[in-house]
Specification:
Strand order of the largest sheet: 2-1-3-6-7
Number of domains: 3
Protein name: Sigma-54-dependent transcriptional regulator
CATH topology of the largest domain: Rossmann fold
Number of strands: 18
Largest sheet: 5 strands, parallel
Distance between the termini: 84 Å
Organism: Methylophilus luteus
Number of helices: 19
Strand content: 5-15%
CATH architecture of the largest domain: 3-Layer(aba) Sandwich
Keywords: ATP-binding, Nucleotide-binding, Phosphoprotein, Transcription, Transcription regulation
Radius of gyration: 31 Å
Helix content: 40-55%
CATH class of the largest domain: Alpha Beta
CATH superfamily of the largest domain: P-loop containing nucleotide triphosphate hydrolases
Pfam family, one: Sigma54_activat
């Protein structure tokens, strides 16, 4: 028991943060000693001798913690517990009567700990310190989860092309499977070129499923240091290796019952592929240096820009792991195959950049829109995001020109409606008319939708259609 700890500790315990503590205690001499010791340890401390005084101080002082005696002149301290718990205040109860019944009831009502009198002051400080660390860790975890939840909720899949409609349909089906059963969800493998948005799809998939309020842990297998990757993934016990000064969970454990996203899974060393396969098969993980196995409840999503089938045939990727990952496969199309989405994405990134940096509204010039459609975007959506953001940030005029984009020159226009702006027609008016016709075709003659594609208002769209004699 902590109550057996001697009060003759040489160095007093000091806490970095200055917290407020309310002591509710009717024994004046004992209360003075406690207040003095807590103030010496760096706390702000107030003392109440009754339930009535405590109710007054709780409003004025707004404490972070309450040290609450059970037997008070005007009632039992347990009567105050619901009021304190409702205000998210941590409570440690104190009782001088060997019977622990009151303490057990207090714990059930929300108290974090209890002490039996006579109370050792250093023991009290140790318990407060332990509670402070626990509270900080929980607050950090709650913040992290809230941040990840907000990040996942804000994820959007931009695009109306057939390829993106197919991706959405697959996500909807996977979300339905998640809702139908509590069984372990099948693994999902997302493939595609670099920059096609595999990580966005993984987050969107997580946000669409029933576990969207649970952790989303993103593991970049390509960036983890080779000498640390095993402990990062699986965790370790204290002393498992030279620098293992404390036990710590790995990223697999940290996903809890949320989602573990293994990005660039093709870069995982062969030796660790066998351990990962074991985790996927048995849904158990064992930390380095431990003999205890812990269950894995997280959904597993993997992504790669490599051809894992070919790698497995060449012996560079375990075939059994490939087949275990390849339960549900989603192929992300390159941007060059999503011509219908190009202008839509460009306007989305423009608007996001303007919003993020509180910039005024911009528009793309007709020739800039043609350049965006002509360009092949070898870096896919990621390249477009950076190029458009740079153009918006550096452009000092309300209209972003082709020059502002900084894209390589293309010698010919793409096939389709934009081809109407041939070399003889490639004037500003001709280019503008070509873009209007292209947007209207994509929107199936829906003027409002075409205006959104071009990033202009419906009124502006109508004005420019009239200007060029375009009717639908």
């Amino acid at each position: 028991m902590l109550s057996q700890i001697s009060s003759s500790i040489d160095k007093p315990i000091r806490l970095v943060s200055k917290k407020k503590i309310l002591l509710v205690e009717d024994e004046v001499l004992f209360a003075r000693a406690v207040v003095k010791r807590l103030q010496k340890a760096g706390f702000e401390c107030e003392h109440a001798e009754s339930l009535h005084d405590a109710r007054l101080l709780i409003k004025q002082f707004e404490p972070d913690m309450v040290l609450l005696d059970m037997r008070l002149p005007d009632g039992n301290g347990i009567d105050l517990l619901p009021e304190f718990v409702a205000k998210n205040i941590n409570i440690i109860v104190m009782t001088a009567y060997g019977d622990v019944t009151d303490a057990v009831n207090a714990i059930k009502l929300g108290a974090i700990d209890y002490l039996k009198k006579p109370i050792d002051l250093e023991e009290l400080l140790l318990i407060i310190q332990k509670n402070e660390k626990t509270t900080e860790l929980q607050t950090s975890l709650d913040y992290s989860r809230q941040r990840d939840t907000l990040a996942n909720e804000s994820v959007q899949l931009i695009g109306e092309s057939a390829a993106m409609q197919s991706v959405r349909q697959q996500i909807t089906r996977i979300a339905q499977l998640s809702a139908l059963s509590d069984a372990v969800q099948p693994t999902v493998l997302i493939t595609g070129e670099t920059g096609t948005g595999k990580d966005v799809v993984a987050r969107y998939l997580h946000a669409s499923c029933v576990n969207h309020d649970k952790p989303f842990v993103h593991v970049d297998c390509a960036s983890l240091p080779a000498e640390l990757i095993e402990s990062e993934l699986f965790g370790n016990e204290k002393g498992a290796f030279t620098n293992a000064v404390a036990s710590r969970p790995g990223l697999i454990e940290s996903a809890e019952d949320g989602t573990l996203f293994l990005d660039e899974i093709g870069e995982l060393p062969l030796g660790l592929q066998a351990k990962l396969l074991n985790v996927l098969e048995r849904r158990m993980v064992r930390r380095l240096g431990s003999t205890k196995e812990r269950p894995v409840h997280a959904r597993i999503i993997a992504a790669t820009n490599r051809d894992l089938y070919q790698m497995s045939n060449e012996g560079r990727f375990r075939s059994d792991l490939y087949y275990r990952l390849n339960v549900i496969t989603m192929q992300m199309p390159p941007l060059r195959d999503r011509s219908q989405d190009v202008i839509l994405l460009a306007n989305y990134f423009r608007q996001m950049t303007e919003k993020r940096y509180a910039l005024p509204h911009h528009e793309f010039s007709p020739t800039a829109l043609i350049a965006i459609q002509q360009y092949r975007w070898p870096g896919n959506v990621r390249e477009m995001r950076h190029q458009i953001s740079r153009a918006v940030l550096m452009c000092t005029q309300p209209v972003i020109s082709e020059h502002d984009l900084g894209l390589p020159q293309v010698g010919h226009l793409p096939a389709g409606p934009a081809a109407a702006a041939n070399e003889a027609q490639l004037t500003l008016d001709g280019a503008e008319k070509a873009m209007l016709l292209s947007a209207l075709e994509q929107a199936r003659n829906n003027v409002s939708k075409a205006a959104r594609i071009l990033g202009i208002t419906r009124m502006t769209m109508r004005y420019r259609m009239d200007k060029h004699g375009i009717s639908v």
